[in-house]
Amino acid sequence: MDSNSNNKKFWKSLSEYNNEPEILKNKRNEFSEGVTDDFEPSELNGISRRKFIALMGAATALTATACSDYRDKGEIVPYNKRPEEILPGTANYYASTCTGCESLCGILVKTREGRPIKIDGNPDHPVNKGKICAKGQAEVTYLYDPSRLKDPLFNKRKVSWEQINNQLISEFNKANEEGLEIALISEHIFSPTFKKLLEEFKTKYPTTREYYYSATDNGNKLNAAFKSYGNYSIPTPRYDKANLVVALDDDFLGVDGNSIENTKNYSMKRDAIDRVNFNRLYVIEGRMSLTGMMSDYRLRLRPDAQLELVWTLINELKNNGIINVPSELSSKVSDYTVTKLVSNYKINEKKLRSLLSDLSINKGKTIITAGKNLSESVHVSVNYLNELLDNTGNFDFNNFDLGSPYSSYKDFENLVSRMESEKVGVVINLDVNPVFNLPSDIGFEKGYSKVKTTVALSLENNETGEKSKYLLPINHFLESWGDYKNKTYVMSLQQPVINSLFNTRQKESIFLTWVTGEAKSYDVNSYHKYLLDNFNTTIYNNSSKKTDSNSFWYGSLHDGIVELNTKPNSKSAFNNSAISSIPNPASKSKFSVYLTEGYFLGGGKYANNGWLQETPHPVTKITWDNYVSVSPATAKQLGIEKDDLLEISVNKKKLKIAAVIQPGLADEILHIEFGNGRKVVGDVGLETGVNAFELISKNNSETNFILPNAELTKTGDTYKLASTQEHHSLDDTFVKDFHKVRKIIQEGTVNEYKKHPHFLHDEKHEIFSITDEHKYTEVKWAMAIDLNKCTSCGGCVTACNVENNIPVVGKDQVLHGREMQWMRIDRYYSGTPEDPEISNQPMLCQHCDNAPCENVCPVNATNHSPDGLNQMAYNRCVGTRYCSNNCPFKVRRFNFFNFRDHFADSYYENDLTPLGNNPEVTVRSRGVMEKCTFCIQKIMDARQVAIKEERPLNGNDVVTACQQACPAEAIVFGDSNDPESRISKYRNHNLAYHVLETLNVKPNVTYIAKLRNTHSEEV
Amino acid sequence: MKKTVLDYTLKIRLPLTLFVIAAAFVITFYASRAERDSVGYTPDQPIAFSHKLHAGQMAIDCQYCHIGVSKGRQATIPSVNICMNCHAVARKDKPEIIKLTKYYEEGKPLPWKRIHKIPDYAYFNHSVHVNKGIDCASCHGDLKEMEKVGQVKAFTMTACLDCHRKPHENLPYLQKVNNGPENCFACHR
Q: What CA–CA distance (Å, rounded) separates A739 from A745?
């Protein structure tokens, strides 16, 4: 049997699919075209030969004089009074909470000598269980970002906190006396103590009105939950419980909901190692999402047709006698049939029928979810379908009840009209950016300028801060106290791990000052005390009180969490009237713009974070920009080519944006991700993409994110997007169907595997070496990556960046192919461009036993260690790049510049940013090669402990940064010489294979082949 | 035979010049070697602390002050509060202790001159060496006899590797000792 059962041909991009000669040429080369361009020595710095010799002479003379005395070696300054818990040179860990998004993951912050340098998940936290996403990992950069606001500003001039608070308090009082509104705009508040404080603020200043909104909100889902179940709490799907998952444009492994929790639960049902217990994932979507890439069956359907799909499912299941639908509702859906859906939207009928039969078989064992950008009607219908199929047992109803919805555009319109009629005295923006991400036709910006007192509390300046009279700098969450609760059963605590770096205050303590009405009342510890009081009254007094309150508090702080003994929420009954009030689906326009949240920028919040900007998009592998994706058929129809600059007009708004032809996209859908295009932002985020929020109008009927009646025209210009998808491609000019023949990607189906477990290794060649094998007697390091679990979320890439001091290179350098990330995630398509299947493969240094890079190094800078590592000595490297040329996996990265002073006018070369560097890893400079080291610093740490404890080193003691970050636990690392270890189990598994096995380089990274849980017959 | 200028240049001047250059190089190389390797570097410290008195005569254990040496990479220079454990009461009237107390009370950093230094790209770990039973004196010299601390041995890669390759010769007091690792990642990362 062939290892790739259905004779798939893999390809990475459309140009590759079409065998464009340029791509073939690029593959044969070491780096992509232009990587060594503009490298004229004369341009680097202006030292002529003569000057160089003169300098050399001067240097020699200097050396001679220096010989006469000892070199000064500087000073060592010990602590004056050493804090008891700090031992210089060893790391301390503190539990806290990441407030980067509403998921509120528990984190463990690694600090060295009082400086936070890495954020990992808190293993004790019941929700994220020791894992954290790419955005959370990259938060360290924001703490040390030189663009942070450093002082309070009044009309852009520096003032003291006392002065600014005095002014504001008198403004608040005046507003109250005159009966003017104090508008407080914020995200939903998940902190019980801050909520209490805001209530006090409202009592003190009764004209206060709150507005909740978020750029990345799931308002539609929340409103649907309210309509269906009567409370503002979105049930969490428990993917570990369901055998069948149907995601309707729901990127639950990417950005919809808590992706860490979802990925963890989902991957439990993708275990090919211990027992094959696969679930089956259907994704019906218009875009190509991360979740869609993982699906067993992917159906293309434009997002505005999702309501029809759900109704079709209800109707067909009812007709098959699987579910009972009350007669008043059944008439509503009776028009919707598979035949009609297929003829209207060309959805794949076979797959749809297979979905229907799977739904009938798995009644009660299914999860159907809809994406947050779909309309409320779709969400209500999906909730209803889950009810009908008895699936609600697979949902967790313990999410915190928000008590109120997100403010609608109507609310903001009313606010703006009150602003214009001068009925609003004060507007406070609490770490939000409405000028950037509210639809421009609401006129917020104009209304805002009419308000006398405008306040923005923010970490960095942004579009709203620029227009505000008072700009108050707030603490990063690593400098703040807090308590957070988004599940009823757990409270997550936040503690500062460093003093405020600048003259900033945490936002809660600013409110505390306003509540007391005395600018002088501020004290660094005031909010800490307030929090502690509230904690003692609400949590400690309700606990079983086995210890005194002080020990309880410190114990909770140490753990980072308090488990609450609340009764689990029970699900309320479904409200049938929610479904009957849904209007019938409207007819579809030709082109629709579909907006979704970008993977790494959090709606624009993370725009100034270089690590996140440079992490390649999980699907398109594009960095530093956003773009409009169109399907190959639509592109052909309109004559669009890659990188064409298009003008999209919808709702009388226009946007110029570059095009990407995305295989697998629904036809006539223009998919854009938002979050890019910030205008008032630090140097990193400037000119990165366009602001897709500009297209949204206040008058969208169903959902704000699907914009019908779009038109697009070619401007005739092009805009170069920096995609890494063809960088570091493996050479395939020799053989057609290279990936199949060379077995880079190997996969099968679950059924095939169950029938024939050895299918991968049937046609194994005898590979022998002409030299003697080197024996590894002690520990031998190896890694395994389970491709069944890997979702290509990019968490590992960011974790590696943070752990190993990997520089940001910038868009121009990525265009040259000089990105520095040690880990890349290769994405391969197979099948047709219209409806491809996708395979992902994280690729990093394979630490080959017979490493080809080692033989060619003229200075022996790269060689092999006794524990099986391919080591790289930076201080020995002279930069010939021969090793990279000879690496079959293309995983070596060369420092073409000193990227720290090269990027964005030395943006990252300042006193601040290096504080976030890992002191255990050398900061590389220009002219040296680097690559994955299997986190040698962590291996050496484990070795140090083993020596101290006088025991042999245990392979399980080392957890690499990527392994630690992976929410799916797809990465396993350890000692392959230990037959009992997990890594040995992986390496000897039936599904294990090595990339380019036939070269006999003997890689130490094993891949576990992906199994697709499809039906045995080809669908 | 008449001697030409060329003969003179070739036979005398050139060899002489070459000899002078070579000799100058060799002499400078060896004469400056100690300084290049910092052997003998004995800077003045802000406080005239005597290891001879503390470690020698009073026989205080090294780890009483250098607390990190068996726990991690850095041996750590003692923080001022460790000095004050004793000197809050002991010898309070001596000028050096008055200086010390002043640093402590003002909370000012005490800038000791650095004596031993290896490059940034080399990661030496004190704890793995000390926990294997290697004596401090094997690298730092006999501190018990030093009034003022200076560097005794070279801290070059050659010196590291010499001991890693021939531990029995260099550390005769250790009964059981294996060769140290010689691979790059042992020190460079």
A: 6
